[in-house]
């Protein structure tokens, strides 16, 4: 069953893959950040962003599962 919450979860999990597979968007040296070329710090930034997005997706999934369980429990009564 596709719900808006599940679409958001899918987007959270898909965004890092798209960002890292689109190499042309970050295959350059400028702008440098504290002497580190863009190519490297962009990828390291996505490690942090990916962690946050995965955590958000997990929390949304838990909420969705609890909501479905309560709906099933309420419907059975």
From TrEMBL:
Lineage top rank: taxon: Bacteria
Keyword terms, alphabetized? Membrane, Transmembrane, Transmembrane helix
The keyword Transmembrane is annotated on this UniProt entry: yes
Keyword set includes Glycosyltransferase: no
A Pfam match is DUF3311
**Transmembrane domains' residue ranges:** 7-27, 39-61
Recorded protein name is DUF3311 domain-containing protein
């Amino acid at each position: 069953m596709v719900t808006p919450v599940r679409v958001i979860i899918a987007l959270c999990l898909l965004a890092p893959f798209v960002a890292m597979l689109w190499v042309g968007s970050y295959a350059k040296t400028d702008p440098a950040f504290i002497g580190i070329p863009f190519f490297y710090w962009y990828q390291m930034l996505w490690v942090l962003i990916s962690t946050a997005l995965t955590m958000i997706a997990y929390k949304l999934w838990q909420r969705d599962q609890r909501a479905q369980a309560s709906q099933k429990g309420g419907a059975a009564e």
